[in-house]
Here is the input.
Amino acid sequence: MKKVGIIMGSDSDLPVIEKAVAVLKQFEIPYEVHIYSAHRTPVEARDFALNARENGFGVLIAAAGMAAHLAGAVAANSTLPVIGIPCQSKVLEGMDALLSTVQMPTGIPVATVAIGGGANAALLAAEILAVSDDDLAARLDAKRAADAAAVLEKDRTIAANL
Ligand code: RP5
Here is the structure.
């Protein structure tokens, strides 16, 4: 299976990345995690993206906060699918990163998930890999069914007790 490459702009983004890693572990998807910043270590961020396909990656996830150009910079240097996670900052609570990540000009797409949406980023990465992996697709279908069953169980409990 192709690997998922996860890049965060700073170790302060780690709590968001941990949510993504937990999902990838759950689905036994191979991954690598790196700290590469679009502005503090732009050469390393560029080189990782440029070489990602030949290094066995199938999807890239980039998480950053504030003026969050990391996902866009990664996407500029790779035609692998790039998923952007806007991270929350103290001043603007993630709206800055959301707009910076989602508003990519035509030609360089970034699939942006919710502010702090590490789990959904990993699930989307899994769904992309599952396009050519029937076993992974079956595991995703099973998780959806289990999640739905859990909600219906809560529904039965609420209906019986209120
Ligand atoms: C971005 O700036 C990082 O992705 C992080 O979310 C934000 C703040 O970084 P630190 O100052 O905490 O290292 O580059």
Notes: Strands lie at 3-8, 31-35, 57-65, 82-87, 111-112. The pocket of 5-O-phosphono-beta-D-ribofuranose is lined by residues 9-10, 12-13, 37, 64-66, 87 (CB under 6 Å). DSSP finds six helices and five strands in the chain. Residues 83 and 94 are 16 Å apart (CA to CA).
